[in-house]
Amino acid sequence: MKLRCLIFAGIGFILLWPGSLVHAQQTTTVRGQLLRNGDPAPGVQVTLGNQAVGRSWPAVTGKDGMYYFYNIPLGDYYLEVLASNPPKTYPFKITGLPYHDLPRIPIN
């Protein structure tokens, strides 16, 4: 009886385990810095967007000019910097590191 329970539990685990991998989604933190005349640019609004899913995430740079977006799924994105008129857009791809560092962006 005990062996039968272990066998059924093992079969159930094997059947359910691959399904949980399909639904698991890797995420990362996207971070970067904006510079104005070589110095950090605080208080600048930026937007991270993904056109494929029609979703965007807003953020504002801190005192150090840094912005962060947390728990972002892998895929193709764009960063829109709203300090410029018109706003500037920078496309990039997230491939799966714990952090995705974007290059420093100079703004006017």
Pick out its properties.
108 residues, alpha+beta, Immunoglobulin-like, five-stranded mixed β-sheet, four-stranded antiparallel β-sheet, 48% strand
Summarize it.
With 108 residues, this protein is α+β, with helices and mostly antiparallel strands. It contains 1 helix and 9 strands; from the N terminus they run αβββββββββ.
Query: Domains counted in the coordinates: how many?
Result: 1
Percentage beta strand? over 45%
From the N-terminal CA to the C-terminal CA, the straight-line distance is 74 Å
Supply the CATH superfamily name: Immunoglobulins
What is the CATH level 1 assignment?
Mainly Beta
Unreliable residue runs? 18-22
Going by helix content, strand content and strand pairing, the class is alpha+beta
Q: Rg from C-alpha positions?
A: 21 Å
CATH architecture: Sandwich
The best one-word shape is elongated
Explain what the structure shows.
The chain has 108 residues and is of the alpha+beta class. The protein has a single domain, classed as Immunoglobulin-like, CATH 2.60.40. It is built from one helix and nine strands; from the N terminus they run αβββββββββ. The protein has one helix spanning 2-23; strands at 27-36, 39-40, 45-50, 55-60, 66-73, 75-81, 88-94, 99-101, 105-107. Strands 1, 2, 5, 8 and 9 form a five-stranded mixed β-sheet that branches. It is elongated, with a radius of gyration of 21 Å. The termini are far apart.
Helix-strand layout with pairing:
Blueprint: H1 2-23, E1 27-36, E2 39-40, E3 45-50, E4 55-60, E5 66-73, E6 75-81, E7 88-94, E8 99-101, E9 105-107
Parallel strand pairs: 1-8, 1-9
Antiparallel strand pairs: 1-2, 1-5, 3-4, 3-6, 6-7
